[in-house]
Inverse folding.
């Protein structure tokens, strides 16, 4: 039973435009959310996080939005760059006890 | 600062053989995780250590998998005997504490033939 879902396996975006990656979760007790980026043959790299007391967190070109009522979070990358091409995983936990990961979305930013 | 180091990077073994993976976390990180990642899926937690204590091993198949972190620093994950379905990437991660973000190693890609 997947508690965190990323329903888009892939996304293709033109360089300079916005990339929006989506993530849904089922457990209303989840209170901390992370996004990781993964390049081929490397381990995931932490990108940005958000706690349930906020609905937005921004770090440079990356912004994560949390909609608790919809159990939905999204990662916005503006502007997208070719170096952003990677697989993006969202993860969620309840009080940091255990993180559940989505299956990932492969982002391709075209020059 | 060195990141999480895992070895080997790749391992090919025949089914029913044993295999072991090693992980050295980031210096000073008390929390260590072992994750399993199947193709096209996200990482799934196998076991989490706080120092040398395994605080969550509920997802570890204990009939064939074992792990240890004797001195609360580096860790080994063992499979004995390996099965075809164990082919996957085994990721180690560490964090300063259990309530901070985890940093991942490059993983060990296991192929069981």
């Amino acid at each position: 039973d997947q508690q965190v879902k990323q329903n888009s396996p892939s996304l293709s975006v033109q360089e300079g435009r916005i990339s929006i990656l989506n993530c849904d979760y089922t457990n209303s007790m989840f209170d901390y959310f992370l996004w990781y980026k993964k390049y081929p043959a490397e381990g995931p790299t932490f990108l940005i996080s958000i706690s349930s007391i906020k609905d937005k967190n921004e770090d440079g070109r990356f912004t994560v939005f949390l909609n608790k009522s919809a159990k939905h979070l999204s990662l916005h990358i503006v502007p997208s760059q070719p170096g952003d091409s990677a697989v993006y995983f969202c993860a969620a936990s309840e009080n940091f006890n255990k993180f559940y990961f989505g299956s990932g979305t492969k982002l391709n930013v075209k020059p | 600062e060195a990141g999480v180091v895992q070895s080997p990077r790749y391992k090919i073994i025949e089914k029913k053989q044993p295999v072991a993976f090693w992980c050295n976390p980031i210096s000073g990180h008390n929390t260590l995780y072992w994750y399993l990642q199947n193709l096209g899926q996200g990482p799934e937690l196998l076991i989490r250590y706080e120092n040398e204590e395994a605080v969550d091993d509920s997802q570890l198949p204990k009939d064939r998998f074992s792990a240890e972190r004797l001195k609360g620093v580096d860790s080994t994950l063992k499979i004995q005997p390996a099965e075809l379905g164990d082919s996957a990437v085994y990721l180690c991660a560490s964090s300063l504490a259990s309530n901070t973000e985890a940093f991942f190693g490059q993983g060990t890609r296991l192929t069981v033939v």
Q: What stands out?
A: The interface with chain B takes residues 4, 6, 9, 34, 36, 41-46, 49, 89, 91, 96-99, 101-104 of chain A (CB under 8 Å). The two ends of chain A are 38 Å apart (CA to CA). The mean pLDDT of chain A is 96.
